[in-house]
Amino acid sequence: MSAASRGLISRFRLLSIGPRTYSFRSFSAEVVALEDESDGAAVEQRSREMKRFSKRTGVIAVKCGMSALWDKWGARIPITVLWVDDNIVSQVKTMEKEGITALQIGAGQKKEKHLTKPEMGHFRSQGVPLKRKLREFPVTEDALLPVGASITVRHFVPGQYVDVTGITRGKGFQGGMKRWGFKGMPASHGVSLTHRHIGSTGQRDTPGKVFKGKKMPGRMGGKQSTVKNVWVYKIDPQRNLMYVKGQVPGAEGNFVFVKDAAYMVPSRDKYKNKKYEDISLEKKLMVYKKFDISLLPFPTHFASPVEDLSQLEPLVADIGDADPFMPAD
Fold this sequence. Notes:
By secondary structure, the protein is mainly beta. It has helices spanning 3-17, 117-126, 176-180, and strands spanning 34-35, 42-43, 59-70, 76-83, 87-93, 102-107, 133-138, 150-151, 161-167, 172-174, 218-220, 224-236, 241-245, 255-260, 262-266, 284-288, 315-316.
């Protein structure tokens, strides 16, 4: 059968199925309520009470670089500047449909010519603007937000701790001393041209091989890394900037993912001898690093319609009234 006849048969089959109809939603940043088909419940954009098992969504930020600030006592604080670039909810996943409760967050802007057709179809089906970066954050059911909801830097509060995830800087192929911190060979007499070698890597006839996972020279960096318990020193709502203490993974201009520094632990001491997986969720406790969760906006911060961003002042963490440079009594 020729190629022309095969193509003609395929066209007849399409005609027999019937004409296809396509429906697209227009691009819009307007917040809509997501309605669950199972029970008709809608995800509303409103503030709720944060419970001990509640888990908020994270945000996508751009690493702008490092600098330094001085607090009111004159102490120098090394900080990293993160820019929360136009974060919105691009998809909502529920237990009834996808089997999980999660929010897909989109950040930045991107032109249509730089997106693939599946990506364009995804944004069209959700009715949200084109986004440069997408990331899914697992949340609890009470922390769901409607599609199109905006998330700003005021999602976080100065003084709280966050976990920052990013791709580390690529260092290329490096030796054992730089990659793993090995001491190297002696630098005195008796060593010839092997001062930076890692030394012996195997055994004799038994087992006669190098074990898997041996620390050796190789590719360094360029992997996902998470820095936990990073202190939020300052936020600037007017420019959507967040100042965190210390370093975070990634180069300048890279995307990083920021979420609350929280983890689940058993809530009672009598469960400490049991495995973590055997303890039900009701007997676990969401622990936040040295912070009162009642101060966190839940599920996120909702700006007032009459609020003027140009008049908002930066918010700085409270460092207390004790001068660190004065001797203790």
